[in-house]
Structure formats: structure tokens, C-alpha cells
Specification:
The protein is α/β, with parallel strands linked by helices. The protein has twelve helices and 19 strands. It binds zinc ion (2 copies).
Length: 449
């Protein structure tokens, strides 16, 4: 661990509370409180800035290996750092698929070389994402990458028996299966949310029931097996109801919502601009209201970006042939600010919970095991995230200016792709600085290295 420059952040407001100083050294927060001084430290004036624990994304597509024209581990983690993230989970739908110890270790090493945020590879559930046979889940868990989250994201594990076996398998080492809930037969050729508008626009509909049926099934399977299920990108009001019911039973089910599903509706499809084409699709205003309420009351545990970069030629084409997906790392905190904080549904402490503490817990990065005990001494240690901004915690944090406002310009983003649905939109806030284990990755809103 680096023992380089010491830093003193003066007068920022930890999770939106009263101002305090934070002294950073040797990768840790070494002191937190009013009136600190630190000889020889670089001082950052944190007046009017919010300090949050470094954000943790459970759902990022970094595209490397295989689609380096869309994103690389380097460019994707630059985007992450600029968005205030200190850890991202890299989805497995790369080429080759991250379904062996070798591939997940390659992605993990590339993340370490970039050094901008911790890259936690997600392992595929099924070999080649083909949905036929389980991938080498145990070998990926035991690898240097120490995989704990498994997902065929981009595809649904639609075979119920295979899903059951996957849940049983990861139970042995406390892993979690993250499901992309999409019943394939109900969504053949689907292009946008199924509703009045899809009929008007002549685009094949993606019905809410195709998501909700899989979520209900998998909650029941997770309960039956006694294993842990995470539900990716919840997008419908019915899904929120089902998850609320499953949690009321005490089942080990967690869920995420994307920034775009918190802010945007299916009416944007009327533009036929494929920048608004995403899977699951943008839904109705009632669905947006329901996912916001679910995130506010904790039914939905966390915000995850589903950052899905695509090159121009795959997005700037006709809607029916355009790729699904939106970038999100560089705008997530600002979108949550607009959708949840400015509307009074979350305070900054709750934002820290939904964007750092809980996703770190689901990804098993809080330094404790799933059952609350200490992490085992054997094997490579996972990095620690989602800890409070107090002395002794790793110095993973973001400084955010809530009073700033600016228009989103994709040309100014670090992502190699430009498919942000927020282009041209004025959003509140600005990430001023991001620290990873006491070293700045972002300073003055720009990459620090
Ligand atoms: Zn997905
Ligand atoms: Zn995804």
C-alpha cells in the first residue's frame, strides 16, 4: 500500500452532516473531526462539499477483452473514477466470456494495472453464457480475482433447473447469483416497453410480466435453496412489489435499479433515437415512481449503473437494429441527486448507503463475511469498500459539489463510447475529487493520474 502524500480535507460535510476535517495517510482515514491539522499534508478546501464513501458499482460493462472499440478497463475505470467510484463489478459478457479462472484473473489484473478503482470481475453463471451448463464457479471463486458475484447478464438464466443448481452451488462459499430477469419467450424481438406507446410507434413490446415472472420464480428458488439472489436493473412497479414481498419473508434477496430507470420514461422512444434503447427498456411514469419509492424505502438495495458502452456504428442507426444499452458511470451520482435528493426522497446519508455501503455488502467488500463474521485469513484478501468516513477506514471517498450544475456533454467524458441518454440535459452536482486508498484518482474534477 502506498505511503506517499498525506492529505487533509478541510471542512467537507461527511454524508451531508456537519462539517468535519478528514486526514488521509497510508491508505487510511487516520483522523476525522473538527479542527484537524496535519504537518506536511496537502490541504483540500472542502467547504460546501459533500464527502461520501467511494461509490461501488455492482453492474458495469467494461467490454475488455473483446470489444476494446467500445471500452477498455483503462477507459472504463477512468469514467468510474470521474463518477466518484472506487470499485466496480465488471460483467462477464466479454469475448472471451469471463467463465474461467483465467479470464477473471486477466480482467482483475488489468484493473490493478489501471489503478483507478478496484475492478471486481463478475463470473458467468453458465459456460459461454450459453445457458446450458454451469461455468467453473468454484474455480473463479478460488482464483486470485476472488469472484463472489456471478451473472449471465445480457441474458437471463431462464432454465429453472439450472438456476436452482447455480443457487445451490454458490451457497457453499457464500456467493450470489445476479439475475438479468427477462423471460426470453415473452420478449422475442422486443424493442421497447410494451404499452400503448409501443403500439403507436409500431415497435415490438417488452412486457413488464417478462421481468416480474422471472423475479417471482427466482425469489421462490432462492428461498427453496436457502441461497442468495441479487436482481439486476429492476424496472417495473410489479417487480418492486414482488421483491418487497420476498424480503418480508426474510429471504436473501437484494436488488438494484439503474440511474436511467430512476429518471427517464418510455416516452423518449417516440424520438426513435436509439440512445434511449436499453434492456430492460425505459418504462412508464408509474414505474419510475415505484422504483424511486422502492429505493427510498430500501426494498431496492442499491443503484447500479449498467454502464453499457457501444461504439457509434452500433447505436447511431435505425432503432430496430441498434444495440441495447447506455453509459452511466460518469453521471450516476448526479442523476441520483436529481431523481432522489432534489425530490426529497433520499438524503446524502441514504445516498451513501444505496451507492456505497449496500453494494459493497452485496459484493462482499466490507471486510466481513456474508454471515457477519470476520473475513477468512486464507486466500487473497478482497479490497474493503463501503466503510464509514471515520478513523481506521480505508481512505476511499468522493468529494461532491452539490451546488454545481452543468449540461452533460458526451465529448467531455472519459468513456470510449458516447451513448449517454443524458446528453444535453442539465444535471446538478459535480464530482470534485475521488480518493482510492488515500491516493487521488480525480482532483478538481479531472483525472489526477
Ligand atoms: Zn442486464
Ligand atoms: Zn448489464
Amino acid at each position: 500500500m502506498s505511503s506517499g502524500q498525506r492529505w487533509l480535507v478541510k471542512g467537507a460535510r461527511p454524508v451531508g452532516g456537519p462539517p468535519a476535517d478528514l486526514a488521509l495517510a497510508d491508505g487510511l482515514i487516520v483522523a476525522a473531526g473538527p479542527g484537524l491539522s496535519a504537518a506536511g499534508a496537502q490541504v483540500i478546501d472542502g467547504t460546501d462539499l459533500i464527502a461520501l464513501p467511494g461509490l461501488v458499482d455492482l453492474h458495469t460493462h467494461l467490454r475488455e477483452p473483446g470489444r476494446e472499440d467500445a471500452e477498455t478497463v483503462q477507459s472504463g475505470t477512468e469514467a468510474a473514477a470521474l463518477g466518484g467510484y472506487t470499485a466496480v463489478h465488471a460483467m462477464a459478457n466479454t469475448d472471451p466470456v469471463a467463465d474461467t479462472a483465467g479470464v477473471v484473473e486477466q480482467i482483475w489484473r488489468l484493473g490493478g494495472q489501471a489503478g483507478l478503482c478496484d475492478v471486481r470481475p463478475v463470473g458467468a453463471v453458465t459456460a459461454g453464457l450459453a445457458g446450458a451448463h454451469l461455468a467453473e464457479l468454484g474455480a473463479m471463486a478460488d482464483s486470485a480475482a476472488r469472484v463472489r458475484v456471478f451473472s449471465d447478464d445480457g441474458r437471463c438464466v431462464s432454465d429453472a433447473a439450472l438456476m436452482r443448481r447455480a443457487l445451490e452451488y454458490v451457497k457453499a462459499f457464500g456467493g450470489v447469483i445476479a439475475q438479468h430477469a427477462q423471460e426470453p419467450r415473452l420478449t422475442e424481438g422486443a424493442q421497447m416497453n410494451e404499452g400503448e406507446l409501443s403500439g403507436v410507434l409500431g415497435l415490438t413490446g417488452w412486457p413488464a410480466v417478462a421481468e416480474e415472472a422471472i423475479i417471482a420464480r427466482d425469489c421462490l428458488l432462492a428461498a427453496h435453496v436457502g441461497s442468495t439472489l441479487h436482481i439486476c436493473h429492476v424496472s417495473t412497479a410489479g417487480s418492486v412489489e414482488i421483491i418487497r414481498w420476498a424480503k418480508s419473508k426474510g429471504w436473501r434477496v437484494t436488488a438494484e435499479v439503474t440511474p436511467h430507470h430512476l429518471l427517464l420514461t418510455d416516452e423518449l422512444a417516440a424520438s426513435y433515437d436509439p440512445v434511449f434503447k436499453v434492456n430492460p427498456p425505459l418504462r412508464t411514469r408509474a414505474d419510475v415512481d415505484a422504483v424511486r419509492a422502492g429505493l427510498a424505502d430500501g426494498t431496492i438495495d442499491c443503484v447500479a449503473t449498467d454502464h453499457a458502452p457501444h461504439p457509434v456504428e452500433d447505436k447511431e442507426t435505425e432503432w430496430p437494429v441498434a444495440a441495447f444499452g447506455m453509459t452511466g458511470l460518469e453521471t450516476a451520482l448526479r442523476v441520483v441527486h436529481a431523481a432522489m435528493v432534489e425530490t426529497g426522497q433520499l438524503d446524502w446519508a441514504a445516498v451513501a448507503d444505496r451507492m456505497s455501503v449496500r453494494p459493497a455488502a452485496i459484493g462482499q467488500l466490507t471486510g466481513a463475511t456474508a454471515d457477519g463474521g470476520a473475513a477468512p485469513a486464507a486466500g487473497p484478501a478482497a479490497p474493503v469498500h463501503g466503510r464509514p468516513l471515520t478513523a481506521g477506514s480505508p481512505a476511499n471517498l468522493v468529494l461532491y459539489d452539490p451546488a454545481a450544475r452543468s449540461v452533460i456533454d458526451p465529448r467531455l467524458q472519459a468513456s470510449r463510447s458516447r451513448n449517454t441518454p443524458f446528453a444535453g440535459l442539465e444535471l446538478p452536482g459535480q464530482v470534485v475529487a475521488t480518493f482510492l486508498r488515500g491516493e487521488p484518482t480525480v482532483l478538481d474534477g479531472k483525472l489526477a493520474r
